[in-house]
Amino acid sequence: MKPFTYERAKTPAEAAAAVARQPGAKFLAGGTNLLDLMKLEIETPRHLVDVQDLKLDRIEPTTDGGLRIGALVTNTALAADTRVRRDYGVLTRAIVAGASGQLRNKATTAGNLLQRTRCPYFYDPNMPCNKRKPGSGCAAIGGYSRQLAVIGSSDQCIATYPGDMAVAMRVLDATVETVKADGTTRAIPIADFHRLPGDKPHLDNNLEAGELITAVTVPRPLGGTHHYEKVRDRASYAFALVSVAAVIQKDGSGRAAFGGVAHKPWRVEAADALMTQGAAAVTARAFANARPTEDNAFKIPLATRALAATIAEGKSA
Amino acid sequence: MKFDTPAGTNPIDRETVVGQPHPRIEGPLKTTGRAVYSYENHEAAPNAAYGYVVGSGIAKGRISSMDVREAKAAPGVLAIVTADNAGPIKKQGFYVAKPLAGPEIEHYHQAIALVVAETFEQARHAASLIRVDYARAQGAFDLAAARAGAKPHQRQPDVRIGDFDKAFASAPMKVDATYTTPDHSHMMLEPHATIARWDGDHLTIWSAQQIVGWARRDLGNKLSIPQDKIRIVATYIGGGFGGKGSVCSDAILAALGARAVGRAVKVTLPRPLMPNNTTHRPATIQRVRLAAGRDGKLVAVGHETLSGNLPGGGPEIAAAQTQLLYAGANRLNLTRLATLDLPEGNAMRAPGEASGLMALEVAMDELAEKLGMDPVELRILNDTQVVPGAGPGRGTSTDPQSASGNQGKEEQGPRPFSIRQFIPCLRTGAERFGWEERNPKPGSRREGRWLIGMGMASAIRGAPIIPAGGRVTLDGKGIVTVESNMTDMGTGSYTIIGQTVAEMMGLPLDRVVVKLADSNYPEAFGGGGQGGAASATAGAYAACVKLREAVAMKLGFNSADAEFIDGDVRAGNRRAPLAQAAKDGAITAEDKMEYGDLSKRFEQQTFGAHFCEVAVDAYTGEIRIRRMLAVCAAGRILNPITARSQVIGGMVGGAGAALMEELAVDKRFGFFVNHDLAGYEVPVHADIPHQEVIFLEETDPTISPVKAKGVGELGISGVAPAIANAVYNATGVRVREYPITLDKHLTQLPEIV
Ligand SMILES: Cc1cc2nc3c(=O)[nH]c(=O)nc-3n(C[C@H](O)[C@H](O)[C@H](O)COP(=O)(O)OP(=O)(O)OC[C@H]3O[C@@H](n4cnc5c(N)ncnc54)[C@H](O)[C@@H]3O)c2cc1C
Ligand code: SF4
């Protein structure tokens, strides 16, 4: 861990300005991802701005009938909220399928969106990795890639976004609200929030330097039945090989986003439109341009089967 | 004391304390955080500096240059130990890879430096400032590709009995299948950890070591320190599974670091360093050929196994148990070793049997299906009460952790098992598990989303007994203190040794103080090869026999008549309190149990049967265990709580081996990629819903007067194949490459869309 300085910001604008001011500064929320990466010197911030005093820990109704989730709401609190459980079951299900009780107590909504990839080569500083060290190469390509992306990858990076909550956020069409260093705010649709690796795999998302997430909003409830199918080798405490967040309506229509397959939660709206034709039709469209490796080609039939399970569950509900 | 004829009745047979379910005596210290583990021994080394190990960034080649200037100048840094300044380190001992590399690199993450600093954070940061240039060399990292150069190994000579080829070719029913098992990491909770302190030329290390005597021997040899100048203390150990079999880089480098800075130094291996820096269970490729008549009687039993290791390392003895488990006149048993440049392969819980049964016992399941026979009945039919083929007897293995059958000198006539309750294990298990509910037609039982299957497998694991000593002291308050360098990895050694002494001296357990795991105490081997419990309690027994004689003499009893009961010594009408013998001063007795040739005359093994029910998600292929049962026949069970705990722990290890554990090899860079607990998955609570263990009544008088064997490795042996067979029964898809993960059967599962 590189030595670093530390401060606690009082207001969102102040926090954003503090990070923008100092090169190599980062926000610190629950710390469950950032501190681990700092110990391994994968992240080497020289200054940390702790956001825990920013009072962004409330869940409030929005004027258009949705919910505004403060950036510091913990995963535990969000999953347990009665409004979320009633109207956004997919979100609760996705969150509780992730990490462990202890981690969820500490993990925040913003930190969770920004968790970094679990590519094993990213985690080993001896290995070339364009995400960790731009221009150094990608050890995962041609290496052990069972966990990695099957679609949307590039010749420079085949990492996945590993989280669960964001997959549910994607199916709900959430919006990420931010404040920039100059005090201006913006709202980023979740679809545009995470990036594909392209030739800049070191960038996970489209935030600017010093841009602070203040909240995530979800639009008014979709109705239907809510599903989160997380497929993994062991029963708990593992990242998804493939996950499916889905909202299925009584008439068999619906929408689905996939986790564990790409550098961002993967949803193709044109594929959603095929939901009534069954899982195979949806995934044929959603994974049309897939370029899996030998190790992870199984994820495509797995995505189909996992979606089929949710559709069947929706029918029997 | 020499044990050379089968034991008669002795005080242990009373089982007033031995065999009783005493909770672990050190348990409260552990649950309240007061048990002091090696790295936390602040009292022994209040001012310890921190050492941080730097691992090599390449698998094979040379360090062409190393620049430590920036690291050395970093805040708090006291010294940097490298091959350039460490002095000679001999390549000798249980582990063959060098604990400190340079300029030659033998494997990935091999230690190349130790940074010593005032704080852990300073040492870790300075470690990242060391600049190393390497000259990479070509290495061999692919076991299958290295097969061509594989050779036999003297530790496991070839066995050819009868005419295997002919019998196999002409038999009507046969199985010929190849199975692979991957490299496994021990991943015990407590990482390797050591504090080293020099007092003049005398070195003390507080170190997580399973076998104190080996640690002292190897530390002395590697660093050329006379053994009497070394003390090893390993009071509490947070698990080992074979990974702490002798000194690793933490211990060696702590000693060198402490010498360099003239102050105690503590070193622990960070989790991501463990799989590549230390040892692991090596991968195997195994071919099993079984041939039977239509009646199911085996006529040919062939097992060939291939594993790889660094030059000088040994093979995984994965085929040996196959010589002992089933009858059959024609036999082929071959062990081959290839040279690889991956990290060192060495002992991990049930080395040999754990991997070997993963192949053999699935092959038996495949044969049963071909024969249309019940898998339990097939095993019963092929039971043998003597070692098949009147084969060679067991020699003294140089590695008790790999001790197994059919090594060493030729014997005359068929060699019997000391006791073999294999069939009772199978029958009891089948009955208690409800085996008759199993549908022999695979893929035929479904509950909603889930395909349900049941499977079973046999278990066998050697019961090594190793000479061990003990020292017992009776004080004036009637307390007996026992000392031995036996270790306790959380296994229950403290408790069972205490129970043995209590039984021998006629005391309740709370009148016995147990002191273990210090090289100042009498040599008692240690925890490994499931030989620890049997050996150390026999050593304690020998010491107690001497103490009983001394006490009897002091109190004026004829020692042959004296009985030790309820804190008294009795003979005829006379009785005297035990404490009275020490009223003029404590009485100490020390002895060692040594052995004749009973372990050569009898094949000493533990037996078991594992049963498992799994559910496989018909959609996703995910495999979830529903319930597991182990039936064990393993000599006298010294304490049913600690023995059960050993077996259920072994079953968890078996579940990991069956379904998820695999060190993924990067064959380009030559290392284990998933080298932390996020990437290397082991079972979590949710994977292990229900376990049951049954111990059959048994005492084995050929082992020692205590008549006990080990259970810790029997508990893992045969578990993974029972699960594999259950998965097959659920799905009808046979996966022969462990671990059985969903991707390997997914597309062969029933259509769902
Ligand atoms: C063992 C383990 C298992 C896990 N398993 C899962 C799993 O199965 N599924 C899953 O989804 N997740 C899993 N996680 C990840 C976990 O969910 C994340 O670590 C957690 O959500 C991160 O939240 P945090 O508040 O601790 O973030 P931090 O670690 O504090 O921050 C993460 C990143 O977000 C930035 N950041 C934080 N707040 C803001 C803000 N308001 N604005 C802008 N930037 C900000 C930080 O600078 C940092 O870069 C696991 C983690 C661990 C350690
Ligand atoms: S896939 Fe991406 S994160 Fe992984 S090694 Fe390649 S560049 Fe790095």
Strand order of the largest sheet of chain B: 4-6-2-13-10-11-12
Q: Mean of the pLDDT scores of chain B?
A: 96
DSSP summary: helix tally of chain B? 17
Query: SS-based structural class of chain B?
Result: alpha+beta
Low-confidence stretches of chain A: none
Largest sheet of chain A: 5 strands, antiparallel
> Fraction of residues of chain B in helices?
10-25%
| Tally of contiguous helical segments of chain A | 12
Report the helical percentage of chain A.
Answer: 25-40%
| Ends apart, CA distance between termini of chain A | 50 Å
Class by SSE composition of chain A: alpha+beta
Small-molecule binders here are:
flavin-adenine dinucleotide, iron/sulfur cluster
- List segments of chain B where confidence is low: pLDDT < 50 over at least 5 consecutive residues: 392-411
Radius of gyration of chain A: 19 Å
| Biggest sheet record of chain B | 7 strands, mixed
Number of domains of chain B: 3
Q: How are the strands of the biggest sheet of chain A laid out side by side?
A: 4-5-8-6-7
Q: Quaternary arrangement of the chains shown?
A: heterodimer
Mean pLDDT across residues of chain A: 97
